[in-house]
UniProtKB/TrEMBL annotation:
It comes from Lasiodiplodia hormozganensis. GO terms for molecular function: carboxy-lyase activity; hydrolase activity. GO terms for cellular component: cytosol. Keywords: Decarboxylase, Lyase, Signal. Pfam families: Amidohydro_2. The gene is orsB_1. PANTHER family: 2-AMINO-3-CARBOXYLMUCONATE-6-SEMIALDEHYDE DECARBOXYLASE (PTHR21240), AMIDOHYDROLASE-RELATED DOMAIN-CONTAINING PROTEIN-RELATED (PTHR21240:SF30). InterPro entries: ACMSD, Amidohydro-rel, Metal_Hydrolase. This is Decarboxylase orsB. Residues 100-356 form the Amidohydrolase-related domain.
Amino acid sequence: MLLLTPLLTVLLHPLLPTCLASNHADIPYYTLEEHWVSPALAPFLLQNRVIRALNLGPRASQLLPEVGPLRLASMDANNIRIQTISHVPVPEALYLPNLTATANDQLAARIAASPQPGRFRGFCILPMGLPGAAAAELRRCVRELGFVGALVDALLPDRRAYDSRAYDELWEVAVTLDVPIYLHPTPPNPDEVFDVGEGLYAPSVPGEYSEYEAASLGTWAWGWHERTGLSFIKMYLGRVFERFPELQVVLGHMGELVPFFLERTDMKLSGNRSLTFKEVWGCNVYVTTSGMFSLDPMTTVLRTTDSKRIMYSVDWPLELNEDGTRFMAELRDSGLVSEKEFEDVASRNAKRLLRI
């Protein structure tokens, strides 16, 4: 059993949530940012000081390694027909192709051994520090393991993004195989969180706020979302989408802040480029709702993004399926989307993108 550090209040909910109301159970959900941890990479997760400071707690400890009855029961209780599973971010693995391959094999085996393997799909983890190896592993996972794409750390440990031509081989494989690349937040380096007076997310003077608050600021409260959006913008500036106009990228958490800056980013960066930033946003990007269950950001996403490119996701088990269920009920009742658009967000867009 994976043992993570003590308790985070938000995760201390029952393992098996109550059934959702029947009037919202007619349209099934397909979710795309749902996590697990492999035996091969769990030791790195345990050793990451930033992750330890987040205090993931016993609930995540029990659910992250499991692809079986507990996961399925939560899916059943919350109307989730298909869950696409991906590895939690492990920055240390980005230069370890043998271990990432082992982790992918372990995920494929866990899915195959689950009571209902048809309820799951897989995104592979890739050694993004080695572009050639990442391309080869994506090809292997799609062709041999049946995975439907990759979910990758948005930045390398040295904060480099994927805007250089070194990654063209990877994008070419993704386009050829017609699978998406999901850019996912990755933890900041420990010095950015814990070096008081110097670290970007650390307090300016000792004792101003806790290590947990500094780690949260650098991760799920702000930092890693902003940096994931930045990674995507750098791909645009590196003309990745001009070279690979069919490449599809997924951004979670309501678009990793990009929708809120879309007009300004487009105005300041598009210039005389053959593709404007807005054009790339409209043709090359899908957005998921993972971990953000409020109609306020969703309203902005709907105003900036075609509803055929918005997909429901939860970020389970770090977030709760029942919170996502409540959000989807609120969305359906809000008048922000038609019934057709709601079904697109709930499942149809994911089915089309992942060819389910």
